[in-house]
Amino acid sequence: MGTLLQDLRFAFRQLRKAPSFAITAVLTLALGVGANTAIFSLVNMLLLKPLPVPNGQQIMTIVLRENNGTLQQQFSWPEYREIRAQAGKSFSDVFAYDLSLDALSMPGQRPDRIVTGFVTGNMFEALGLKPAAGRLFRRDEGEVLGQDPIVVLSYDYWRKRFNSDPGVVGRVVAMDGHPMTIVGVAPKGFHGTQSFVDMAAFMPLSELVIDTPADLIEGLQNRSYQVEARVRPGVTREQANAELSLVAQSLMRQHQEWEKKLGIEAYPETSLRINTGDPNALMVIAGLFLALAAMVLLLACVNVANLVLVRATTRAREMAIRTALGAARNRLFRQMMTESVLLSLIGGAMGVLLGMLSGMELGNMNLHADVPIIFDFNFDWRIFFYSFSAALIAGVVVGLVPAVRIARANVNSVLHEGSRGVTGGRHRLRDGLVALQLASSLVLLVIAGLFVRSLTAMQRADLGFRPDHVMNFVVDTNEIGMTGEQARAMQHNIVAGLGGLGGVRYASSASSVPFGYFGNGDRLLIDGAAAPANPTDRDSGYNVVSPQYFSVMGIDLVSGRGFTDADNAQGRDVAIVSESAAKRFWPGQSAIGRIFRTSSEKDRKLEVVGIARDAEFQMFNGGKTQNYFYVPFEQHVKGNTLMVLQVRTQMDPLTVRTEAEKVIHSFSPQLPIFQVQSMHEALYTLNGLLLYQVGASLAAVMGALGLTLAIIGLYGVVSYAVSRRVHEIGLRMALGATRGSIFSMIYRQSSVMIASGLGIGLGLSLLAAKAFGTVVAVSVWDPLTYVLVCGVLALAALVSCFFPARHAMGVEPMVALRED
Which of 505, 605, 686, 792 is most buried per CB count within 10 Å? Predict the structure, then answer.
């Protein structure tokens, strides 16, 4: 221990003697460690950190898979009850929940629009939670529809809305106009089981009847409940899945007309926080971005290693003298390694701060959603361990080669060389490190280029609708207790009022927008057609719209007609289907005039009156090939009180925002208006372009860091090489070499390093790009990306060599010769 403390004190003194070297090395390592900390913080939040409940690693998400298709996280009420009843050996508790946007109001006050979790009564007990005030739900609450009109507030909402008043327990509030009694407050730090969504209140599932028809809540076709469970200690995932497989078989026997080739599985809650249909997909993406961050750290290490090599050369005589005076070579090795590790740990500490600040910036990104989102980038032991390991490994990488060279140096040769230090052919190591830097930088820039090109391609893609000049205003009349005929009249009046505004060409309403966080889905029953082998082939998205919706969104009708005012409650039930749906459900024949029904309303026949052009609605869910249909709002008022009011304008849509809000409030001053944004803004959601945008931004930042570090490293090595060859250059010029030939010599030798780096980097880039093939929207062999990136890197590298080369050709021969 005493020797270690002595080494540390000596290392501090050495760093103080060379402040420029220390500051440069620390900042370089801080950038590398900071990039890794930021990316790992994101991965930690998405995939590693368990729910903030006792033994959170035991919580598992239950999913279903039909006909070996993609994973689905929603179950119907009968399916949930069957799982809870039959999976008791593997799970100590199984609970379900559903999310809703509701309005909580106090007498005489404007309602707050909040995210509500409708949960089974056993959820809090299953999670092992205790109340901060009052009580939580009991296991038997929420079993009977319409009973238990009670609510539990989240801790944060209780603090913000009620100033942490314990007297709130027992108070009656209105939820969407319905009286509810507050019975308790959830514990601090618990925001619900839906990752990233901040639930402000919890109600029993039985209270879904306040805004959902009772027959729909318990219907087998209504898969809207997410199911989670706490696995018993010692039970493996394989054992749990074997029991769930028996549950699936039981459901298929009981409901043969609906459940076909059903599979039920359990996954760790962390693996499906963002459901891509494949629980491994997010892990792969996270691994790829961590690899990019590790490459940035490698570049930083190589840069600092070059600095340490240069410094080691200048200190070679000092170390040789110490060896001649009796210092052991392993002692010198340990001293050099101590300096390097100390340097990296200081840089690592700064890097952690940079990484956490970057994480906070990521947490503030705009998700274009009127839902409170929580990104928890709080520092924890996982981030500490990862960042500390990265800094420690960086210190070893940076110091190992210089330490070995110093320890193995020939004392007599070094002392005879005098001030020139360790010379000879060892510059090949530095040249090789520079080539490695350029190669790594090229890989980072290629990946960044592919992401940027993907984002550009998606922004320019034909979406099947025209997002320009469209403004969205979302309202929910249910939040002020208005449903049925009242909601229908409100919608009709508001749309008519918006259509009369100056500068507005068309006005309409819809139940959802493309790429939005909320949508509708159902399974179609085609009259006259045989039941398909795979029932999921009949699954379809749909939208409830007013007549001018297609004009507002710019969706063209291929054949048939659009909706009219005559398509009301008194007219025959009609629908418009997408081109893909028409071809799939009525192949080789016209869909116009055909009849279909939906699983949610089996007795209601819908006649196809039009075929609309395919449009993108979920960027990561089938694109234009997905089945889709539209029905008129006038015929489907029930359960569709949430409306996206849309206007297409002749000018910038933002200019009509104020007047449009006045029109809406003229019909109901208490009606909350939320998610007011242009259609262009609405495209940047997690279901749309946001992930491409985030991926492009992260890759671009790491590419820029890589480019900067590589160019600095190249400049430093070429400058050092020139400084070490001043005597040689002076001699060449004294013997007749021109200044131009000296300039060319430096550039020629630098070009070898640059060409080597680009060649190696091009091969590595092709391999790395292939790994990113599933997450970019352009070809991984996109020639434009490679040409542009190679050109930018080569130009930047050549420019960085210009100044050392110019310095070399400015050497005065007589001055250089006198220096030796």
Answer: 686
